[in-house]
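JOB MANIFEST
job_type = single_chain_structure
chain_count = 1
residues = 466
[input]
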Amino acid sequence: MKISVANIILISIMLVTLPCFVRSQNITSHSNEYYNEVADSIINHALKYQTGYKWLSELCEIGPRLSGSEESIKAIFWAEEKLKSIGCDSVWLQPVMVPHWVRGNTEKAYISSSKLYKGKELSVASLGSSIGTGEKGISAQVIEVHNFEELKNLGDKTQGKIIFFNRPFNETIVNTFGGYGDAVDQRFLGAVEAAKVGGVAVIVRSVTSRYDNVPHVGVMAQIDTVKHIPAVAIGLIDADFLSEALKKDPGLHLTLKMDCANLPDAQSYNVIGEIKGSEFPNEVIVIGGHFDSWDKGCGAHDDGAPCIQTMEVLDFFKRLKIEPKRTVRCVLFINEENGTRGGIEYAAYADTTKEVHLAAIESDRGVFTPRGFTVTADSLILDRIQSWLPILNLSLIDYVRQGYGGVDINQIRNIKALIGYDPDNQRYMDVHHSANDTFESVHPREMELGSAAIAILTYLINEEGL
């Protein structure tokens, strides 16, 4: 999941606001009892068969799905066939040209000059879009800083140095997206700011809530007018070691060797499958997530399982013989992590079609226990969705409140509601963008309850409109 710095601030504010309460019962097409029965049938099917969890096992066997990679294309074709097997009315691939960054085979950091620590290797991983160091690597003295202001105040001391950004994840913030937002600017903009003051490379403390030595990666900014310099993330245990080592030996030198590279753009695709509406086929409800992932772990929580949750909505409709009034369209967006080109391409299509995009629901916050939905919409629509809380609560949804929809669906203009699925986030930053994000980190019941929650909300919007 890639989030711009501006969006991170917005998310952090919106996700920590207090839940809104149900204000009115605004259901008209059927009785609450009828909708409860449908919701129960969806939940029972999800928990009994755990189809999506089984699909996730297949997807994770393919491997991580970084945009432009061979594995991403294999996964795209896998999803296309899976949507066809569900019995969608139509399935197609939407062409998208994507950035193609490769990690390479070498990413190494070690203390190359020190009376106390020479030869000590550190656990690092190249940040997405970083350039390599060349075969000889980069060796330089290290300077530790905690923010950009501190960096600027060092003056000429930063010339020719490796800049070590070591601001920790803020554990005092209850919502982990807030802790992430408080620290991620050093990962995203650290290399740019370091290059401005003469830095030759950057080491960034991993942005994670889990104390281990696994580097957490993610995209970094590259600005054409600023010299590009290499950047790596470092595991928390080694970040603390390096900080203490610098106190005892401020003159130590570190050597970085990386052979990552930015290649020419590659051909890729959004995967789209839909069930046509029986009464209002030109009114569309989009459900989906981003199908690319970083290349550490297998991208199970970010964003393989969430994508499968939205694919499973169509499967529920088919297996339970739910005939939607409006068109339900699953869109698996490519390249959210390092470009958002899939979301931009789909939004361009939405602008040209005669269809009316009624709502879009994005799942991109992991697949932990369901908590709620965050909605970008006017107050009347928010009230309407909140009126369905007694039904949504059957799948453990506790709130519907104003908040962020999602990076990809937010590209869609002229739409009534942008909705983000919001599971419990306390463990999300433990796995985010790291080798910890594996199939084994996903609990089947948590995942399937989320699939059911998204399906129930999709069904209610489909039946009632907005």
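[summary]
The longest helix spans residues 444-464.
The two ends are 28 Å apart (CA to CA).
exit_status = 0
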